[in-house]
Specification:
Cytochrome Bc1 Complex, Chain D, domain 2, 8 helices, about 140 residues
Length: about 140
Amino acid sequence: MKLLTSLLISACLVGPALAEADLKKGEKVFKKCKACHQVGEKAKSRTGPILNNLWGRTAAAEESFKTKKYSKALRKKGEEGLIWNDETISAFIENPKKYIKGTKMAIKVKKEKDRVNLLAYLQQYSTPEAIEAANALEQ
């Protein structure tokens, strides 16, 4: 039910792209991310922070991930007020080093459809309310 509600809210906010997302394909794309990130009930920070409750989170603010592990560039963006939402996450994962010069994140998700599927997959681990609020923010 949480997943369905999340996807319905996303569909209203970002249009048909996320409404047509394929969660299985998103999970497959996430396999690239698994070397550094985890999601789910038992997720732990690794080389990168956990991605639970990502929507609405300030960049470089995951409490279980030691602040010093974040790049200076990402911490600065967080201090400047960068909030993760559909737009900012998609832009970041498309080309992290272009979006935030100096970030440690190296994996790119170049294809838009892959990004849409990945975002839909990750949204399962954020609340619908957080997704809605984050997507209502202008960055």
